[in-house]
Amino acid sequence: MSVLDNWQDWKNFLGDRLNQAQHEGMQGGVVSDLAYQVGDYLANQVEPKNEQEKVLADLWSVASTEEQHAIASMMVKLVKNDGTR
What we know:
The protein is mostly helical. The protein is 73% helix and 0% strand. The protein has one domain: Cytochrome Bc1 Complex, Chain D, domain 2. It is globular, with a radius of gyration of 12 Å. The chain starts with 6 loop residues before the first helix and ends in a 6-residue tail after the last helix.
């Protein structure tokens, strides 16, 4: 089973990676830039596996680059405390 199959698993996965990056000293701006890159990769290379991911993919597809950065930043905020560690 992939972490992409279940929205809560996906949020936990992202939260864990965020916690790990912050623990290793990665700054917020770098985290947001990485979130944007991950979002862009997922939007262009990975088929959404659940309804929430489909909504995000649809939003990403119509968003400007600035709006995509905002979506990525909001995802970081959403998962900030969702990690399982």
